[in-house]
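Write out this protein's structure.
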Amino acid sequence: MGLDETATKEDARKRYTQLVKQLHPDANQGKRNTEESLQRVVNAYKVLKTTDLG
C-alpha cells in the first residue's frame, strides 16, 4: 500500500480508500487488468486491521 512504519490508522484508511477507487474495475471502464492489484490492497488492509493500525 506504500505506507511506512510511521503511518497512522488514518493514513492507512486514506491510502486504502485512494487505492480502491483507483484500482476498482468501475474506475477503469470495466477493465479487469487491475483486479489482482485491488485484491492485494484489500488483503493488505485486512492484515492492517488486525494490528494496531486497524
